[in-house]
Batch of 2 targets.
Target 1
Amino acid sequence: MGNDFENNMPGMMRADMREKNGQILIEIELPGYSRESINAKLENGRLTIIASRKEELENSDQETRYLMRERMVGEISRTFLVGDGVHEKDVSAQLKDGILSIIIVRSEKAVEGQSIKLIDIQDVIAL
């Protein structure tokens, strides 16, 4: 878990992580990101979320300049330790209203030699 300084850094994914009835729920703020611009991968007990946003220039007028710019362009990522016993079949994800919700069902035993697994992000998940 990060401290307040890390959570307030520009481009940092703000997240809540909680556990209930053997399930972990991670909710990550990703306003303005599309489902296609977000990737989630599971590797060696770590869940990594990568989101990217390209610069959208509305006006190519050379006389226009930014007076302030706070919205990040580029790629951000964050990794969560979820345990070795988690497999891709145990993870589901949805993006709704700028919140990426990830549900992880913890399994009882770890499998050795686990490789990288990509998580499919859905539009809607029933909790």
Target 2
Amino acid sequence: MDKRPVGVFDSGLGGLSAVKAMLRYLPEEDIVYFGDTGRVPYGTRSEKTIELYAKEDIAFLEKFNCKLIMAACGTVSSVAKEAMSHVKEPFVEVVTPACAAAVKATVNQRVGVMGTSATINSGSYEKEIKRRNPAIEVTGVSCPMLVSLVENDWIDSDDKIAVEIIRRYIKPLMEKKVDTIILGCTHFPHLAPIISKVAGDGVQLIDTGYEAVMRAKSILAEKDLMNEAGHKGVSKYYISDRTQNFSDIANTLLGTDISDQANFIDINKFELDLNEKDL
């Protein structure tokens, strides 16, 4: 048993899709979540900037002595190789488990990937899928506007604007007749009802947050790091901007009120402290 918390980070609200799965499948675990809402989105940033942000996010979570850290961010998981390689704790990213699930799920050997611009340009999902099964045809589409839809709570399945944006984004995937779509950004599972409705019943969606949590659960069990059975996990949420807005939207995404658990941190002040320590 290990009572230390699990650390989860994302560029903003998207990683709450992983937290939601964790609350359901790892209810005994304490969670520390950091959403970098002050600098969202990451997907349109340069590789150098994404690496920097990832290092700072990880360094923040390490202050809590986490027993496992999860990058619940498709962009970080795809681009920030250096930052991820230096994590001392057991570490989970979202690309590998999602690709494993997609390879297993596809019947016609055609897989689509929806992601941020940085994620799609990196080719991370395609490379991992091809490594597992070279015969699978992979089609990626960059969907930068979807992050903003989630961050602004435009996720209602009847929202005409959200439906039309998604319809335009996934048109190339439908033309390729994919039967499986990886939601390659953890913001996107929050839009799953719309995506599923537009794609149709014959298309299976892979939730990156859920798959990452299943991988985390396996690691915790293998390393005997699970919290004691019956313990009710406690969650703490930290964001770098707009605490009230975060709480309001998070309540919708998680289905529970977290307003008394959301805390603001000045990431610029934290950066200064980190730099001084490095010097």
